[in-house]
Amino acid sequence: MGEFLAAVTGRGLVALEIGSDRPFMLNALRARLPQADLIESPSELRDVVSEIVRVIDDPARQSQFHVPLDLRGTPYEIQVWSMLRSIPAGETTSYGTLAARMGTSDAREITKAIAANPIAVLVPCHRVIKTDGSISGYRWGVARKRELLAREQRGRPFELS
DNA sequence: GAATTGTCACCAG
DNA sequence: CTGGTGACAATTC
User: Fold this and answer.
1) I need a surface site. Which of A78, A85, A105, A151 has the fewest CB within 10 A?
2) How far in angstroms lies nucleotide B11's C1' from the CA of residue A99?
């Protein structure tokens, strides 16, 4: 899937990026949290990383605990991200459906909020696809979105029409 | 699948 | 204000 970059604050996980260029990802992180003093400490992230690995490796199995998330965004974005977290593994929704649940008819408002999601996988924005069922875009590459969905579908292959 | 059209918040100029 | 632009949607071939 590529390299993962996880970052936590005192409140919880604040970023989870996927990519291939470590220095570039670090720069992006610094750009997003200019005030932050970055400390590399793999040992302190051990629990977080193990949960991420578990969610990716075996999405069907419910994860044993939840890493607290330090969601930073507009209230609207945070509300959208919370909805995403209620989508179970193996299921998908469309932008339009979420829009309706938020009371707007414009799927693009939702799209923007979702696209701003800083926490890959644990905020499952990859479970949102187009109304016709086709895979839409993904900040971290459509190929990764497809891979994540394929892994989640694998756990429940008989629900595919 | 691909192409076309409708549509609208957002942003740069 | 104008024009370009989307992690969209509905329709059509």
Assistant:
1) A105
2) 22
Residue A100 annotated in active site: no
Distance CA A54, CA A47 (A): 11
* Coil, helix or strand at residue A85: helix
Q: Rounded to whole angstroms, how far apart are CA atoms A37 and A139?
A: 25
Chain A window 24-43, residues with Cβ within 7 A of nucleic strand B: none
- A15-69: pLDDT as tens digits: 999 999 999 899 999 989 989 999 999 999 999 999 999 999 999 887 778 899 9
Q: To which residue do tokens 């839409």 refer? A: A136
- Minimum-distance nucleotide, CA of A136 to C1': C7
Q: Which residues pair with A13 in a beta bridge?
A: A8, A69
